[in-house]
Specification:
The chain has helices at 3-14, 18-39, 83-86, and strands at residues 41-44, 48-55, 58-61, 68-71, 74-81. By secondary structure, the protein is an alpha+beta fold. Helix 1 packs across helix 2.
């Protein structure tokens, strides 16, 4: 499922237009991004947790030349699914 499919599904479930559902999906995504950025974690009960993760600087290897390269420290976002999501328990069928 891609973003367009998700928007169509939301529109159908809510009985709304695709435009309205698209705005809703965009608002949720933006809220998650801002929440992770500001609070380092966004937990959605029954779904999972988005959490900011920090990677230390390290030495890697260029796969083409096999030469060592320095990899800078970076920030990423991880997702940990809830037990219900892991077990396929959506609450709806």
């Amino acid at each position: 499922m891609n973003k367009g499919d998700l928007i169509e599904e939301v529109a159908e479930r809510l009985g709304e237009s695709k435009a309205s559902a698209g705005r809703a999906v965009e608002a949720v995504i933006k809220s998650i991004i801002e929440g992770v950025d500001e609070h380092e974690k966004v937990a959605i009960s029954g779904f999972g947790t988005f959490k900011k993760r920090f990677r230390k600087a390290r030495t890697g290897m260029n796969p083409a030349t096999k030469q060592p390269i320095d990899i800078k420290a970076s920030t990423t976002v991880g997702f940990t699914p809830s037990a219900a999501l892991k077990n396929g328990e959506s609450g709806e069928h």
